[in-house]
Amino acid sequence: MPNIEAFLSKTIDDISLPELSSPYSGKVRQSYDAPGNRKIIIATDRLSAFDHKNLTTIPFKGQVLTQLSRYWFDTTKDICPNHVIDYPDYNVLVCHKLKMLPVELAVRGYLAGSTATSILKMYKAGKREMYGIKFKDGMRDFQKLETPIVTPTTKAEEDEPLSPQQIIDNKILDKAIWDKISAYALALFARGQKIASEKGLILADTKYEFGLLPDGTVVLGDEIHTPDSSRYWIAETYQKRFEAGEAPETLDKDVVRRWVNEHCDPYKDKIPAIPDDVRLATAKTYISVFEKMTGNKFQFPDASIDPKERIKKAIHDYLAKNP
Question: Which of 59, 173, 177, 271 is 20 to 30 Å apart from 265, CA to CA?
C-alpha cells in the first residue's frame, strides 16, 4: 500500500457539473440526469453518520464504494435486477433513472449497531418490540439472531423505524411491493453472508434501497454490501471476543462512529473534527474490505491528477461517446 497520507488533501467532497441537469447531493453521492432516462452518480469521499451529512472525508472512500458495489451488483444480478448501465470512472456509475421507493431496508443478522435506529441501541434502552418483531430478554451485545430480520426505516434527514404493518396500513408501499422487496433483501443478504463467510468475514447487517423502472420493474439501486451500508466483522475472532464480552473486530465505518461516541454524544453535542489518524485508519479499513471481498488489489489512482478533474473528464468523454 502506498503512502496514503498524501491523499488526505485530495479527497472528493463535492463535484460540480453545471452542464448536466437535475443536480442532487445526498449524504455521500451526487447525481445528475443524463439523456435516455439515465443518471450519473458520483460517489464522493464524504462520510455521513449520526444524521450528519458530511462528518469528514475519507481517502478513496468513493472509489471503494463504487467498485465494491460493482462486484456485488455483478454477483447478485441473478437474484434481483439492478440499476447499473456502465462505469466511466473509479467513482462514477451510469445507471437507469429510477423512482426510488420511500423505505430503506436494513437486514440484520446480529444484535448490533450504534445509531438511534439500531436494534442494539434500542434493546439496551429497554425496548423488546422493534420493527414489528419481539425480542427475548437476556440477549447480549453482538449476539447472533436466530434468523436474519428486515428492519425498515423512513428515508429522511432523521431515519425513523417502521414495522411492515405500518408500511402497509399507512400506504407507504402496497403489500405486493413490500413483499417483493423484503424477499429480495433477505435473499441478497443470504448471498452476501455466504460469500463473506468464504472470505473470512461476517456480514452482520446491511441496508438496501430499491426503485422502479418506468415499466414498474423493481430493481436494486444505490449501493450494495459496502462498508458504508454494511457491518463487516472478522469471522476468526468473533466467537472468542463475543464470549469475552468484547466487540467484534470490525471492517466498516464504525471506526469513525466509535471515535465519535468516545468523545461526545453525537445526537446532543457538537461533534469534534475527526483526526487524520482516524481518517487514515478508516481509509485502510475500506481498502481492506475491498481486497478481502473481491480478491483483487485496490487500484490506486494517479496521485498527480486532480481527482475532480479526472472524474469530470471521464463523464464528459463517456457522454460524448454515448449521447
Answer: 59
